[in-house]
């Protein structure tokens, strides 16, 4: 039987595998635009469509994961991701591709939603803030790998073969999860799971949605995700318009995503050191405001823009790790951990769905990428207001 530490690390890596599917579109987007005949706004919806299931079903899948078991939910989600990716490689029109991305979104949610609850159950309390810092890296780490390796693959192959490779890789992780993660009946929280299943779903929903803290955490994640997904998602397109080579554009965008990993790891260390969570949230949103204005509103120099967006991603990384930690510690009860994370994930998906089309629409209406900051700063100001409100309610300690 694998140790709890090894299991937690493997679960983080499994989340990275799922995140690869979210980020496989950005490097492939210029090729898909030409092949499928999509305009900028349609491309924004293609970037965001994978979040459709999360936007609608996060809380529901949180309930289902406790009902069917956390490991079983993860294995099922990996299977859906694998099959949808393989089938998506056969699509010749934009509509089937969009529908396939929505199905992938459902599989993605079934993977990443149960993992924080499972990590909490197998991790000692003293290590939880650090492990949640690692978990906060799953999305940017997936972005780094896909924006770099995906761009390298697309230099010699097609987006369709990339979809096939990811489908096979995810199938391998599905088998490994089945073999390495203890069955749900053998986890340390067997009794807690049985008790949760016995509760009425309506009771879990009522308890979760009546928590003001859970609502604020979910909204905070949504306005963060809207900014980050839009900026990083469109960077390959911006570099393509600047006639930067595909491989170089992928490397630059991957570096930006890697900066977010640094921010997440830093947040985990800061939380463990006792820095108040709301201070980390405020620092993240303020940093994103300053960097977005500099990158898009004050300069057209690509070097300065790259540095500003890199810092945008680093300071923004303080936010997700902090919110994941708060989501598992501020849940109204142990039985509502999955539903609380589910609601946070649902609003995160909503932000990732809304962000790219909103930014694309603002850019289209106002006449260029120099106006992208108008949309991102608006989201960040909402985040600052939410962080202030969270500080007034009181947050769990960082140890």
TrEMBL record:
Q: Where in the cell is it found?
A: Cell membrane
- List residues traversing the bilayer: 43-64, 73-91, 97-119, 131-156, 162-181, 214-238, 244-268, 280-298, 304-331, 371-390
UniProt superkingdom: Bacteria
The protein's topology relative to the membrane is: Multi-pass membrane protein
- Check the record and name the InterPro entries matching this protein: MFS (IPR011701), MFS_dom (IPR020846), MFS_Efflux_Transporters (IPR050189), MFS_trans_sf (IPR036259)
The protein's UniProt keywords, in alphabetical order, are: Cell membrane, Membrane, Transmembrane, Transmembrane helix
Report the protein name in the record. Answer: MFS transporter
Q: Does the keyword ATP-binding apply?
A: no
Q: Which organism is it from?
A: Alcaligenes ammonioxydans
State the Pfam families in the record. MFS_1
